[in-house]
Amino acid sequence: MLNRYPLWKNLVIMFVVLFAGLYALPNIYGEDYAVQISATRSGEVTLDTLAQVERTLEQGGIQPIGIEYENSQILVRVDSDDQQLAARELLVSELGINYVVALNLAPATPNWLDGIGGEPLKLGLDLRGGVHFLMEVDMEEALMKIREQMVTTVRDRLRDERVRYRRVEESGNDVVIELRNSEDYQSAVSLLRNQYEGYDFRTDSSQNMITLEMTEQYLQDTRSNAIEQNITILRNRVDELGVAEPVIQRQGQDRIVVELPGIQDTARAKEILGATATLEFRFQDTDNDLQDAIAGRVPFGSRLYDMRGGGQVLLQNRVILTGDHIVDASVGYDESNRPQVNISLDSAGGRLMTQATRGNVGEPMATVFIEFIATGETTDEGRIAFERVEEVVSVATIQAVLGSNFRITGVGSAQDAQNLALLLRAGALIAPIQIVEERTVGPSLGAENVKAGLTAIVAGFVLVLLFMGIYYRAFGLVANLALLTNLVMIVGVMSLVPGATLTMPGMAGIVLTVGMAVDANVIIFERIREELLEGRSPQQAIARGYENAFSTIADANITTLITALILFAVGTGSIKGFAVTLAIGIVTSMFTAIAGTRAVINLVWGRQKRLTKLSI
Q1: Organism's domain of life (predicted)?
Q2: Which domains does the chain have, with CATH numbers?
Q3: What's the rounded mean pLDDT across residues 295-309?
Q4: Is 490 helix (H, G, I), strand (E, B) or coil?
Q5: Residue 599 near residue 10, CB atoms below 8 Å
């Protein structure tokens, strides 16, 4: 028969529709305001913690909808955003520094649906509310770190091989090495030639000089890596904040976009995300007089540092270890119940610390805290200027050879210790960043955006349904059924796709796909009408109408799909949200407008052997 699908094809279409509908179902149940409690590395969420949370909320007069304990986390559901904020304040003050108390929105999905992976659509910043940061990376500082590391590496290499030099220093992005005599020059050439990838090797035998010139490709790679590493570190810090579904992505050459849906404590977010902190460990210079250095006679190879809390100390220029080797940092308390930060190093860092302290037991070692603070001014190149602030947080005598685990004391208050541990645990930013743009969307404004978007979708949808029903009669009702199915499938697929987020532009994409789905049905129905006018039977008109319209519909949708993929590849933020919705909508609209309507029309009219008239 012309207009009959085999049973298997009808079953496949029915399965796809039911499957998408099942995973669209969680969106009906909505979300609850919630407070999420998780432990820092120095804490642990237990059943005792759960009991403490319940007591605290009861004493504070807050009646939660429910409290869940799962995967070493506690989730408290409440009725409103006011109760959410009040609950968070109570729990932060009660639980202390060993726990992260974060605002969240928890799906109210039934357990049976949650058990098969059903989750509601993830809403973007403009729909849920939260904060948007645009950050700029100081690339010059990243390059300076690379140059400093190279100078230190070359010096250590020459010392290890007992090659004497006059100076090893930076010159722009290059490293210049001046040897003492021609013999040392020849030894250095043999030692350093072709040893450092990313640097061209230049020699000047008349001056006993070697220059390691940074290549343009290495320069570009360094800048790109600085951005990517900063993105990774920012993502780690966001995880520490307990934010659900953040957006962290690159924008342009030296900027990063961070969007934190649901975040209302923006001051805390800015403090943690924008902080550029690391540590350096140096030996104290005990061979020279501190007062002479304070008077201005700083000895060669040493430097005067300010102490946190007042005073100064003379330290050697040689860096024992930097924060790059820190793999974990947690808050603890010493024998006098004062806060301290427990440090764990990677294997290379542990080896360096052991080598440095083996011959210096009984000597004082200082911990230098380094932070980059924006000055509010700009450089000659138009970039944001940063001030490098260094202070010694502790000077402790080395009691024994240190390895991969040790502690630093004298870090200030418990909150200071927690912030320092968080920053070191998440990683030190490769280069300083400055927040150049900040936008906050309140929860009420996000709710208004959702309402406005839904109103637009419903209004457009109803108008299309009325037009199709009136103009194409019975066939128009079939098209309307396909449109409803298409909307359900878009929601279901977006709920399934990892990382898919619905934004205001995404809602615009849904409205657009509704129009495109109607276009497909209009083309098909007009072709059927043309076939009827040419004198073909209703069954032949249906068959030829679908066959002839298919290539036109496919061409139009494929070109639009390519555009959506390009937008997704090169776009950021809201553009990506629009592209995802559009791409999914194109695929589902082709399925419902072609396969879906054909299946219904086949079932209703395809079985009528003596069909003489179509309601079209």
Answers
A1: Bacteria
A2: 7-26+442-606 (1.20.1640.10), 31-108 (3.30.70.260), 140-218 (3.30.1240), 275-439 (3.30.1360.200)
A3: 85
A4: helix
A5: yes
